Amino acid sequence: MHTHSDTLVPATDVPPVRDPYGLAGPDRRDGDYLLAPPDPAARVGGPLSPADRRRLDLHAALTIRGIAPRPGDQFAVNAIGSLGDAVTAAVLRWIAYDG
């Protein structure tokens, strides 16, 4: 019968993990290192439109409450988001209501 320790590979036999940012240090062979900070120049797009921001707020609120989207829900979320800040704020308040 083999035990778990029979199958372990000594750390000296493990090749170093590729470290493209040089953050792992010379003794890190397990690949556990911090990622480099994002490059602001590589960001996509500019500011969101108000309707897109409301749509994302609705999706976030539903996700937080554990409400999974169903087929066709995107149409409803887009419609509510297009109705303006006051309507979206009311719906967000309803979603967050704990009674």
Describe the model.
With 99 residues, the chain is mostly helical. It contains three helices and no strands. The longest helix has 15 residues. The termini are far apart. The mean pLDDT is 78.
Write a concise synopsis of the structure shown:
The longest helix has 15 residues, at 50-64. With 99 residues, this protein is mostly helical. It contains 3 helices and no strands.
What structural class do helix, strand and pairing data support?
Answer: mainly alpha
Helix content: 25-40%
For the CA atoms, what is the radius of gyration? Answer: 24 Å
User: What share of the residues does DSSP label as strand, in percent?
Assistant: under 5%
Order of helices and strands: HHH
The outline comes out as: extended
Number of strands: 0
Q: Output the number of helix runs.
A: 3
Query: How far is the first residue's CA from the last residue's CA?
Result: 58 Å
Q: Segments where pLDDT lies below 50 for 5+ residues?
A: none
Q: Output mean pLDDT.
A: 78
Largest sheet: none
Oligomer: single chain
